[in-house]
Protein backbone atom coordinates (compact mmCIF):
# COMPACT_ATOMS: atom_id res chain seq x y z
CA UNK A 1 0.00 0.00 0.00
CA UNK A 2 1.37 3.42 -0.96
CA UNK A 3 1.91 6.20 1.59
CA UNK A 4 -0.93 8.16 0.03
CA UNK A 5 -3.24 5.16 0.26
CA UNK A 6 -2.27 4.66 3.88
CA UNK A 7 -2.93 8.34 4.63
CA UNK A 8 -6.28 8.19 2.85
CA UNK A 9 -7.30 5.08 4.73
CA UNK A 10 -6.27 6.59 8.08
CA UNK A 11 -8.15 9.81 7.48
CA UNK A 12 -11.21 7.93 6.30
CA UNK A 13 -11.15 5.78 9.43
CA UNK A 14 -10.73 8.87 11.60
CA UNK A 15 -13.64 10.51 9.86
CA UNK A 16 -15.87 7.49 10.37
CA UNK A 17 -15.00 7.42 14.06
CA UNK A 18 -15.54 11.13 14.43
CA UNK A 19 -19.09 10.95 13.11
CA UNK A 20 -19.98 8.62 15.97
CA UNK A 21 -17.96 10.48 18.57
CA UNK A 22 -18.45 14.03 19.99
CA UNK A 23 -16.52 16.02 17.44
CA UNK A 24 -16.06 19.21 19.36
CA UNK A 25 -13.85 17.54 21.91
CA UNK A 26 -11.20 16.65 19.38
CA UNK A 27 -8.61 19.44 19.48
CA UNK A 28 -6.13 18.38 16.87
CA UNK A 29 -7.41 15.41 14.93
CA UNK A 30 -10.20 16.96 12.94
CA UNK A 31 -13.09 14.90 11.60
CA UNK A 32 -11.84 14.85 8.02
CA UNK A 33 -13.71 12.58 5.61
CA UNK A 34 -12.11 11.03 2.56
CA UNK A 35 -14.04 10.11 -0.53
CA UNK A 36 -14.13 6.42 -1.32
CA UNK A 37 -12.26 5.33 -4.47
CA UNK A 38 -15.53 4.63 -6.22
CA UNK A 39 -16.98 8.03 -5.34
CA UNK A 40 -16.25 11.39 -6.84
CA UNK A 41 -16.45 14.64 -4.91
CA UNK A 42 -18.52 17.26 -6.69
CA UNK A 43 -16.64 20.49 -5.96
CA UNK A 44 -19.45 22.54 -7.49
CA UNK A 45 -22.04 21.24 -5.09
CA UNK A 46 -23.32 23.51 -2.29
CA UNK A 47 -22.84 22.10 1.21
CA UNK A 48 -24.00 22.93 4.73
CA UNK A 49 -22.93 22.15 8.28
CA UNK A 50 -25.31 21.68 11.20
CA UNK A 51 -24.01 21.77 14.76
CA UNK A 52 -26.20 20.28 17.45
CA UNK A 53 -24.85 21.52 20.78
CA UNK A 54 -25.64 19.25 23.70
CA UNK A 55 -24.92 19.18 27.42
CA UNK A 56 -23.17 16.22 28.98
CA UNK A 57 -20.02 14.18 28.92
CA UNK A 58 -18.74 12.81 25.63
CA UNK A 59 -21.13 10.07 24.55
CA UNK A 60 -23.73 11.01 27.17
CA UNK A 61 -25.97 13.88 26.11
CA UNK A 62 -28.43 15.19 28.70
CA UNK A 63 -29.98 18.17 26.92
CA UNK A 64 -29.64 20.93 24.35
CA UNK A 65 -27.52 24.04 24.93
CA UNK A 66 -28.86 27.34 23.64
CA UNK A 67 -26.89 30.53 23.04
CA UNK A 68 -23.53 28.97 22.14
CA UNK A 69 -21.84 30.87 19.31
CA UNK A 70 -19.86 29.04 16.65
CA UNK A 71 -17.58 30.59 14.04
CA UNK A 72 -16.99 28.76 10.78
CA UNK A 73 -13.99 29.74 8.65
CA UNK A 74 -12.81 28.25 5.37
CA UNK A 75 -9.31 26.79 5.39
CA UNK A 76 -7.04 27.77 2.52
CA UNK A 77 -6.03 24.90 0.20
CA UNK A 78 -3.93 24.74 -2.96
CA UNK A 79 -5.65 21.68 -4.34
CA UNK A 80 -9.29 20.62 -4.60
CA UNK A 81 -10.85 17.73 -2.70
CA UNK A 82 -11.65 16.11 -6.04
CA UNK A 83 -7.96 15.23 -6.43
CA UNK A 84 -5.54 12.92 -4.67
CA UNK A 85 -3.24 15.90 -4.09
CA UNK A 86 -6.11 17.64 -2.35
CA UNK A 87 -6.66 14.81 0.10
CA UNK A 88 -2.94 14.56 0.80
CA UNK A 89 -2.93 18.29 1.51
CA UNK A 90 -5.98 17.81 3.75
CA UNK A 91 -4.09 15.16 5.70
CA UNK A 92 -1.15 17.50 6.21
CA UNK A 93 -3.49 20.25 7.44
CA UNK A 94 -5.10 17.86 9.90
CA UNK A 95 -1.76 16.68 11.23
CA UNK A 96 -0.71 20.29 11.85
CA UNK A 97 -3.83 20.98 13.94
CA UNK A 98 -6.74 23.39 13.68
CA UNK A 99 -4.86 26.30 15.23
CA UNK A 100 -2.16 26.10 12.58
CA UNK A 101 -4.56 26.03 9.64
CA UNK A 102 -4.31 28.97 7.23
CA UNK A 103 -7.63 30.77 6.91
CA UNK A 104 -8.97 31.67 3.47
CA UNK A 105 -9.47 35.44 3.70
CA UNK A 106 -11.68 35.46 0.61
CA UNK A 107 -14.35 33.66 2.62
CA UNK A 108 -16.47 35.68 5.03
CA UNK A 109 -16.59 33.86 8.35
CA UNK A 110 -20.05 32.86 9.53
CA UNK A 111 -21.16 33.39 13.14
CA UNK A 112 -24.24 31.52 14.35
CA UNK A 113 -25.64 30.92 17.86
CA UNK A 114 -27.50 27.79 18.81
CA UNK A 115 -31.24 28.18 19.35
CA UNK A 116 -33.43 26.62 22.00
CA UNK A 117 -33.05 23.31 20.17
CA UNK A 118 -29.25 23.53 20.43
CA UNK A 119 -28.95 23.86 16.64
CA UNK A 120 -26.69 26.21 14.70
CA UNK A 121 -26.77 25.78 10.90
CA UNK A 122 -24.29 27.10 8.36
CA UNK A 123 -25.56 27.22 4.77
CA UNK A 124 -24.17 27.95 1.31
CA UNK A 125 -20.74 26.46 1.95
CA UNK A 126 -18.46 25.32 -0.83
CA UNK A 127 -16.69 21.97 -0.79
CA UNK A 128 -13.52 22.17 1.28
CA UNK A 129 -12.09 22.13 4.78
CA UNK A 130 -13.58 24.38 7.48
CA UNK A 131 -12.36 25.39 10.90
CA UNK A 132 -15.03 25.52 13.62
CA UNK A 133 -14.43 27.62 16.73
CA UNK A 134 -16.71 27.64 19.74
CA UNK A 135 -17.10 30.76 21.89
CA UNK A 136 -17.59 30.85 25.64
CA UNK A 137 -21.18 30.41 26.83
CA UNK A 138 -21.79 30.89 30.54
CA UNK A 139 -20.23 28.19 32.71
CA UNK A 140 -20.09 25.58 29.99
CA UNK A 141 -16.82 24.05 28.94
CA UNK A 142 -15.59 25.01 25.49
CA UNK A 143 -14.55 22.58 22.79
CA UNK A 144 -11.19 23.06 21.18
CA UNK A 145 -11.31 24.36 17.57
CA UNK A 146 -11.73 21.51 15.11
CA UNK A 147 -11.60 20.89 11.36
CA UNK A 148 -14.29 19.33 9.27
CA UNK A 149 -14.44 18.53 5.57
CA UNK A 150 -17.49 19.07 3.44
CA UNK A 151 -18.46 16.51 2.37
CA UNK A 152 -18.12 13.98 5.18
CA UNK A 153 -18.13 10.25 4.60
CA UNK A 154 -20.93 8.68 6.65
CA UNK A 155 -21.93 5.04 6.27
CA UNK A 156 -19.87 4.81 3.12
CA UNK A 157 -21.68 7.71 1.48
CA UNK A 158 -20.69 11.30 0.89
CA UNK A 159 -22.75 13.66 3.05
CA UNK A 160 -22.69 17.26 1.91
CA UNK A 161 -24.99 18.33 4.75
CA UNK A 162 -23.68 16.60 7.88
CA UNK A 163 -24.63 17.20 11.51
CA UNK A 164 -22.04 17.09 14.26
CA UNK A 165 -22.92 16.94 17.96
CA UNK A 166 -20.28 18.33 20.30
CA UNK A 167 -20.84 17.95 24.03
CA UNK A 168 -20.21 20.39 26.86
CA UNK A 169 -20.28 20.08 30.59
CA UNK A 170 -21.76 22.83 32.70
CA UNK A 171 -19.27 23.57 35.46
CA UNK A 172 -20.44 25.34 38.61
CA UNK A 173 -17.49 25.73 40.97
CA UNK A 174 -18.44 26.82 44.47
CA UNK A 175 -16.88 28.53 47.41
CA UNK A 176 -17.91 28.49 51.05
CA UNK A 177 -16.65 30.47 54.01
CA UNK A 178 -16.55 29.26 57.61
CA UNK A 179 -16.55 32.78 59.05
CA UNK A 180 -18.94 32.66 62.01
CA UNK A 181 -18.16 35.56 64.37
CA UNK A 182 -14.76 36.08 62.76
CA UNK A 183 -13.33 39.52 63.46
CA UNK A 184 -9.95 41.27 63.36
CA UNK A 185 -7.25 38.76 64.21
CA UNK A 186 -9.45 35.74 63.52
CA UNK A 187 -9.10 33.26 60.66
CA UNK A 188 -11.69 32.43 58.04
CA UNK A 189 -11.61 28.98 56.45
CA UNK A 190 -12.46 28.95 52.76
CA UNK A 191 -13.41 25.86 50.75
CA UNK A 192 -13.31 25.90 46.94
CA UNK A 193 -14.84 23.02 44.98
CA UNK A 194 -14.02 22.91 41.26
CA UNK A 195 -15.56 20.16 39.08
CA UNK A 196 -12.95 18.55 36.86
CA UNK A 197 -13.85 19.01 33.15
CA UNK A 198 -14.17 16.02 30.86
CA UNK A 199 -11.47 17.54 28.70
CA UNK A 200 -10.94 16.92 25.01
CA UNK A 201 -11.42 13.41 23.70
CA UNK A 202 -9.19 12.57 20.74
CA UNK A 203 -10.09 10.39 17.78
CA UNK A 204 -8.35 7.40 19.34
CA UNK A 205 -10.50 7.72 22.47
CA UNK A 206 -7.81 9.13 24.73
CA UNK A 207 -8.72 12.03 26.99
CA UNK A 208 -6.65 15.16 27.46
CA UNK A 209 -7.01 18.07 29.91
CA UNK A 210 -4.70 20.83 28.76
CA UNK A 211 -5.01 23.01 31.87
CA UNK A 212 -6.73 23.09 35.24
CA UNK A 213 -5.97 25.69 37.86
CA UNK A 214 -7.71 27.59 40.64
CA UNK A 215 -6.84 31.14 41.59
CA UNK A 216 -8.04 33.31 44.45
CA UNK A 217 -7.31 37.03 44.73
CA UNK A 218 -7.81 37.87 48.38
CA UNK A 219 -9.20 41.24 49.37
CA UNK A 220 -6.65 43.53 51.02
CA UNK A 221 -8.31 43.04 54.42
CA UNK A 222 -7.31 39.37 54.32
CA UNK A 223 -3.91 37.73 54.68
CA UNK A 224 -3.31 34.18 53.49
CA UNK A 225 -2.21 31.89 56.30
CA UNK A 226 1.07 30.37 55.12
CA UNK A 227 1.01 26.66 54.26
CA UNK A 228 -2.68 26.35 55.12
CA UNK A 229 -3.86 25.25 51.64
CA UNK A 230 -4.80 21.57 51.24
CA UNK A 231 -5.73 20.04 47.87
CA UNK A 232 -7.78 16.84 47.49
CA UNK A 233 -10.00 15.12 44.94
CA UNK A 234 -13.56 14.31 45.98
CA UNK A 235 -16.61 12.87 44.23
CA UNK A 236 -14.98 9.74 42.83
CA UNK A 237 -16.96 6.50 42.82
CA UNK A 238 -16.69 4.21 45.84
CA UNK A 239 -13.55 2.14 45.79
CA UNK A 240 -11.70 4.47 43.41
CA UNK A 241 -8.31 5.70 44.57
CA UNK A 242 -8.47 9.46 43.97
CA UNK A 243 -5.48 10.40 46.08
CA UNK A 244 -3.03 13.05 44.91
CA UNK A 245 0.72 13.23 45.23
CA UNK A 246 2.60 16.39 46.11
CA UNK A 247 4.00 16.56 42.58
CA UNK A 248 0.51 16.56 41.05
CA UNK A 249 0.01 20.25 41.77
CA UNK A 250 1.73 23.42 42.87
CA UNK A 251 0.57 25.99 45.42
CA UNK A 252 1.79 29.53 44.91
CA UNK A 253 1.13 32.54 47.12
CA UNK A 254 2.13 35.88 45.61
CA UNK A 255 0.90 38.74 47.75
CA UNK A 256 -2.88 38.58 47.77
CA UNK A 257 -3.00 35.89 45.08
CA UNK A 258 -3.26 32.19 45.84
CA UNK A 259 -2.90 29.79 42.89
CA UNK A 260 -3.30 26.03 42.78
CA UNK A 261 -2.21 24.60 39.43
CA UNK A 262 -2.11 20.98 38.35
CA UNK A 263 1.18 19.87 36.83
CA UNK A 264 1.61 17.63 33.82
CA UNK A 265 1.62 14.63 36.13
CA UNK A 266 -1.49 15.95 37.88
CA UNK A 267 -3.31 16.54 34.59
CA UNK A 268 -2.55 12.98 33.56
CA UNK A 269 -3.98 11.83 36.89
CA UNK A 270 -7.13 13.87 36.26
CA UNK A 271 -7.43 12.53 32.70
CA UNK A 272 -7.25 8.96 33.99
CA UNK A 273 -9.81 9.48 36.74
CA UNK A 274 -12.30 11.78 35.01
CA UNK A 275 -13.46 9.32 32.32
CA UNK A 276 -15.19 6.97 34.79
CA UNK A 277 -15.89 9.53 37.52
CA UNK A 278 -18.10 12.34 36.17
CA UNK A 279 -18.51 13.78 39.69
CA UNK A 280 -14.76 14.22 40.19
CA UNK A 281 -14.07 17.54 41.91
CA UNK A 282 -10.91 19.28 43.05
CA UNK A 283 -11.25 20.71 46.56
CA UNK A 284 -9.00 23.43 47.94
CA UNK A 285 -9.27 24.38 51.61
CA UNK A 286 -7.26 27.28 53.00
CA UNK A 287 -7.28 29.89 55.75
CA UNK A 288 -7.07 33.67 55.64
CA UNK A 289 -6.63 36.03 58.58
CA UNK A 290 -8.82 39.14 58.94
CA UNK A 291 -6.50 42.10 59.39
CA UNK A 292 -9.00 44.95 59.01
CA UNK A 293 -12.69 45.72 58.51
CA UNK A 294 -13.43 47.65 55.29
CA UNK A 295 -15.41 50.89 55.39
CA UNK A 296 -18.38 49.28 53.63
CA UNK A 297 -18.20 46.23 55.88
CA UNK A 298 -17.86 43.69 53.06
CA UNK A 299 -15.07 41.23 52.56
CA UNK A 300 -15.80 39.60 49.22
CA UNK A 301 -13.98 36.51 48.12
CA UNK A 302 -14.48 34.72 44.83
CA UNK A 303 -12.17 32.16 43.28
CA UNK A 304 -11.68 31.54 39.55
CA UNK A 305 -11.30 28.21 37.79
CA UNK A 306 -9.38 27.90 34.52
CA UNK A 307 -10.31 24.99 32.23
CA UNK A 308 -9.30 24.04 28.68
CA UNK A 309 -10.23 26.15 25.64
CA UNK A 310 -12.09 28.95 27.48
CA UNK A 311 -11.22 32.58 26.95
CA UNK A 312 -12.16 33.49 30.52
CA UNK A 313 -12.16 31.60 33.82
CA UNK A 314 -15.31 30.37 35.53
CA UNK A 315 -15.98 32.25 38.81
CA UNK A 316 -17.17 30.43 41.90
CA UNK A 317 -20.67 30.72 43.30
CA UNK A 318 -21.70 30.42 46.95
CA UNK A 319 -22.03 26.80 47.94
CA UNK A 320 -25.62 25.58 48.15
CA UNK A 321 -26.60 23.75 51.31
CA UNK A 322 -28.66 20.58 51.53
CA UNK A 323 -31.67 22.77 52.29
CA UNK A 324 -31.21 24.63 49.02
CA UNK A 325 -30.11 27.83 50.76
CA UNK A 326 -27.32 29.30 48.65
CA UNK A 327 -26.78 32.30 50.92
CA UNK A 328 -25.93 30.37 54.06
CA UNK A 329 -22.37 29.84 52.92
CA UNK A 330 -22.04 33.06 50.98
CA UNK A 331 -18.44 34.08 50.55
CA UNK A 332 -19.23 37.72 51.29
CA UNK A 333 -18.45 38.27 54.94
CA UNK A 334 -20.64 41.13 56.10
CA UNK A 335 -19.73 43.49 58.94
CA UNK A 336 -22.29 45.97 60.27
CA UNK A 337 -22.83 48.55 62.99
CA UNK A 338 -25.41 48.04 65.74
CA UNK A 339 -27.37 50.65 67.71
CA UNK A 340 -29.42 49.65 70.76
CA UNK A 341 -31.58 52.50 72.06
CA UNK A 342 -32.30 52.42 75.79
CA UNK A 343 -35.84 53.49 76.80
CA UNK A 344 -37.20 53.89 80.32
CA UNK A 345 -40.89 53.04 80.58
CA UNK A 346 -41.19 53.94 76.93
CA UNK A 347 -39.38 57.25 77.26
CA UNK A 348 -35.89 58.46 76.42
CA UNK A 349 -35.73 60.21 79.81
CA UNK A 350 -37.75 59.54 82.94
CA UNK A 351 -37.57 61.28 86.30
CA UNK A 352 -34.35 63.05 85.39
CA UNK A 353 -32.78 59.73 84.48
CA UNK A 354 -31.42 58.30 81.24
CA UNK A 355 -30.49 54.80 80.19
CA UNK A 356 -26.77 55.53 80.48
CA UNK A 357 -24.87 52.57 81.86
CA UNK A 358 -27.12 49.82 80.54
CA UNK A 359 -25.12 47.00 78.97
CA UNK A 360 -25.99 44.69 76.07
CA UNK A 361 -24.71 41.69 74.17
CA UNK A 362 -25.67 40.60 70.65
CA UNK A 363 -26.56 36.97 69.89
CA UNK A 364 -28.00 34.92 67.04
CA UNK A 365 -31.61 34.17 67.94
CA UNK A 366 -34.70 32.41 66.63
CA UNK A 367 -38.48 32.71 67.07
CA UNK A 368 -39.76 31.00 70.20
CA UNK A 369 -43.45 30.51 69.51
CA UNK A 370 -45.59 33.15 71.20
CA UNK A 371 -42.78 33.95 73.62
CA UNK A 372 -40.92 36.18 71.18
CA UNK A 373 -37.30 35.20 70.53
CA UNK A 374 -34.82 32.90 72.24
CA UNK A 375 -31.05 32.52 72.24
CA UNK A 376 -29.54 29.05 72.01
CA UNK A 377 -27.66 27.90 75.12
CA UNK A 378 -24.39 27.43 73.24
CA UNK A 379 -24.63 30.69 71.27
CA UNK A 380 -21.64 33.02 71.35
CA UNK A 381 -21.94 36.76 71.79
CA UNK A 382 -20.96 38.67 68.64
CA UNK A 383 -17.67 40.55 68.79
CA UNK A 384 -17.22 44.16 67.78
CA UNK A 385 -15.67 47.44 68.91
CA UNK A 386 -17.20 50.11 71.13
CA UNK A 387 -16.03 52.97 68.89
CA UNK A 388 -15.70 53.37 65.14
CA UNK A 389 -11.89 53.50 64.99
CA UNK A 390 -11.05 51.09 67.80
CA UNK A 391 -9.39 47.72 67.26
CA UNK A 392 -10.08 46.48 70.79
CA UNK A 393 -12.76 43.80 70.51
CA UNK A 394 -15.54 43.33 73.02
CA UNK A 395 -18.81 41.44 73.34
CA UNK A 396 -20.49 43.85 75.83
CA UNK A 397 -21.58 47.34 74.81
CA UNK A 398 -22.61 50.15 77.18
CA UNK A 399 -25.39 52.66 76.53
CA UNK A 400 -24.19 56.24 76.67
CA UNK A 401 -24.96 59.67 75.31
CA UNK A 402 -28.30 60.06 77.06
CA UNK A 403 -29.09 63.66 77.99
CA UNK A 404 -31.84 64.87 80.30
CA UNK A 405 -31.92 68.47 79.05
CA UNK A 406 -32.43 67.51 75.40
CA UNK A 407 -34.44 64.36 76.18
CA UNK A 408 -31.89 62.34 74.23
CA UNK A 409 -31.97 58.58 74.69
CA UNK A 410 -28.87 56.61 75.59
CA UNK A 411 -27.54 54.31 72.84
CA UNK A 412 -25.26 51.29 73.06
CA UNK A 413 -23.22 51.10 69.84
CA UNK A 414 -21.23 48.23 68.40
CA UNK A 415 -19.01 48.68 65.35
CA UNK A 416 -17.72 46.15 62.84
CA UNK A 417 -19.86 43.29 64.08
CA UNK A 418 -20.04 40.30 61.75
CA UNK A 419 -23.71 39.53 61.09
CA UNK A 420 -24.93 37.07 58.46
CA UNK A 421 -27.81 38.72 56.52
CA UNK A 422 -29.70 35.39 56.48
CA UNK A 423 -29.56 34.97 60.27
CA UNK A 424 -31.65 36.76 62.93
CA UNK A 425 -29.92 38.53 65.81
CA UNK A 426 -31.15 39.86 69.14
CA UNK A 427 -29.93 42.35 71.72
CA UNK A 428 -29.80 40.88 75.23
CA UNK A 429 -29.63 43.28 78.15
CA UNK A 430 -27.13 42.17 80.81
CA UNK A 431 -27.19 45.25 83.06
CA UNK A 432 -29.95 47.78 83.60
CA UNK A 433 -29.55 51.44 84.61
CA UNK A 434 -29.86 52.07 88.33
CA UNK A 435 -33.43 51.86 89.59
CA UNK A 436 -34.65 49.76 86.66
CA UNK A 437 -35.11 46.06 86.01
CA UNK A 438 -33.17 44.18 83.34
CA UNK A 439 -35.37 43.39 80.36
CA UNK A 440 -35.21 39.58 80.22
CA UNK A 441 -36.49 39.20 76.64
CA UNK A 442 -34.11 39.07 73.66
CA UNK A 443 -35.01 41.95 71.34
CA UNK A 444 -34.85 41.36 67.58
CA UNK A 445 -32.49 43.62 65.62
CA UNK A 446 -33.74 45.12 62.36
CA UNK A 447 -31.58 46.18 59.41
CA UNK A 448 -32.74 49.78 59.11
CA UNK A 449 -29.95 51.33 57.03
CA UNK A 450 -28.37 49.78 53.97
CA UNK A 451 -24.67 50.21 53.43
CA UNK A 452 -22.98 52.15 50.66
CA UNK A 453 -19.53 51.99 49.10
CA UNK A 454 -18.17 53.81 52.14
CA UNK A 455 -20.62 52.97 54.94
CA UNK A 456 -21.77 49.81 56.66
CA UNK A 457 -25.34 48.63 57.14
CA UNK A 458 -26.86 49.53 60.51
CA UNK A 459 -29.00 47.25 62.67
CA UNK A 460 -31.16 48.86 65.35
CA UNK A 461 -33.56 48.01 68.17
CA UNK A 462 -35.11 49.82 71.15
CA UNK A 463 -35.03 48.01 74.50
CA UNK A 464 -37.42 49.20 77.20
CA UNK A 465 -36.91 48.85 80.95
CA UNK A 466 -39.42 49.30 83.74
CA UNK A 467 -38.81 50.67 87.22
CA UNK A 468 -37.86 48.46 90.10
CA UNK A 469 -40.91 49.67 92.02
CA UNK A 470 -40.84 47.05 94.76
CA UNK A 471 -37.17 46.79 95.52
CA UNK A 472 -36.53 50.47 95.08
CA UNK A 473 -39.12 51.38 97.71
CA UNK A 474 -37.90 49.00 100.42
CA UNK A 475 -35.59 50.35 103.14
CA UNK A 476 -32.20 48.87 103.73
CA UNK A 477 -33.44 46.92 106.74
CA UNK A 478 -36.78 45.84 108.10
CA UNK A 479 -39.04 45.42 105.08
CA UNK A 480 -36.16 44.24 102.87
CA UNK A 481 -35.20 41.67 105.48
CA UNK A 482 -38.81 40.55 105.67
CA UNK A 483 -38.83 40.10 101.90
CA UNK A 484 -35.81 37.83 102.16
CA UNK A 485 -37.57 35.81 104.87
CA UNK A 486 -40.76 35.65 102.85
CA UNK A 487 -38.85 34.43 99.79
CA UNK A 488 -37.01 31.81 101.83
CA UNK A 489 -40.29 30.64 103.35
CA UNK A 490 -41.82 30.19 99.92
CA UNK A 491 -38.86 28.08 98.84
CA UNK A 492 -39.06 25.91 101.94
CA UNK A 493 -42.82 25.57 101.59
CA UNK A 494 -42.48 24.49 98.00
CA UNK A 495 -39.81 21.96 98.87
CA UNK A 496 -41.89 20.53 101.72
CA UNK A 497 -44.95 20.24 99.54
CA UNK A 498 -42.99 18.42 96.89
CA UNK A 499 -41.60 16.06 99.49
CA UNK A 500 -45.06 15.25 100.89
CA UNK A 501 -46.42 14.71 97.40
CA UNK A 502 -43.65 12.27 96.62
CA UNK A 503 -44.35 10.30 99.81
CA UNK A 504 -48.04 10.21 98.99
CA UNK A 505 -47.40 8.81 95.57
CA UNK A 506 -44.91 6.25 96.83
Topology:
Layout: H1 3-18, E1 47-52, E2 54-57, E3 60-64, E4 69-74, H2 84-96, E5 110-113, E6 119-125, E7 128-134, E8 146-150, E9 152-154, E10 157-159, E11 163-164, E12 167-168, E13 174-178, E14 187-195, E15 200-201, E16 207-208, E17 213-217, E18 222-224, E19 230-234, E20 249-254, E21 257-262, H3 264-274, E22 281-290, E23 298-300, E24 303-306, E25 314-315, E26 317-318, E27 332-344, E28 359-364, E29 366-367, E30 373-374, E31 384-385, E32 393-394, E33 397-398, E34 410-418, E35 425-431, E36 443-444, E37 446-449, E38 458-465, H4 469-473, H5 479-505
Parallel strand pairs: 1-11, 2-12, 13-26, 27-38
Antiparallel strand pairs: 1-6, 2-3, 4-5, 4-7, 7-8, 9-10, 13-14, 14-22, 15-16, 17-21, 17-24, 18-22, 19-22, 20-21, 23-27, 24-25, 27-34, 28-33, 28-35, 29-30, 31-32, 35-36, 37-38
Helix pairs in contact: 1-2
Short overview:
This protein is α+β, with helices and mostly antiparallel strands.
Q: What is the CATH architecture term of the largest domain? A: Sandwich
Biggest sheet features: 6 strands, mixed
Q: Total number of β-strand segments?
A: 38
Rounded to an integer in angstroms, the radius of gyration calculated over CA atoms is 35 Å
Structure commentary:
By secondary structure, the protein is an alpha+beta fold. It is 14% helix and 35% strand. Strands 13, 14, 18, 19, 22 and 26 form a 6-stranded mixed sheet that branches. It has a 5-stranded antiparallel sheet with strand order 20-21-17-24-25. Strands 23, 27, 34, 37 and 38 form a 5-stranded mixed sheet that branches. Helix 1 (3-18) packs across helix 2 (84-96). It starts with a helix and ends with a helix.
Amino acid sequence: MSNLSKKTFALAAAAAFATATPLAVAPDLAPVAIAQNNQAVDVNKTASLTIHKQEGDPGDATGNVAGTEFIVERVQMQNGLNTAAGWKEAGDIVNSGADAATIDTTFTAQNVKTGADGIAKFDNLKVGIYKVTEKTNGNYTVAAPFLVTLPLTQDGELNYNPTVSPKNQKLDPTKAADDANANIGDEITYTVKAPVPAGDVLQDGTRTISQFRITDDLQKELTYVADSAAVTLIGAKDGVDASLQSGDYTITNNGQNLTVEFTEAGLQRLEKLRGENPGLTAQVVFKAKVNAIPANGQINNTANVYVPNRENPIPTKPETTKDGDQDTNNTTTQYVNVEVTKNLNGNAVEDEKTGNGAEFEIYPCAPDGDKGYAVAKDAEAIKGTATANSTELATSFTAQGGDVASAKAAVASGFGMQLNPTVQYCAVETKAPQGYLVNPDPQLLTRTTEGTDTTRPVYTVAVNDVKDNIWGRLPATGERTMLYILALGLVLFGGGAAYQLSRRNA
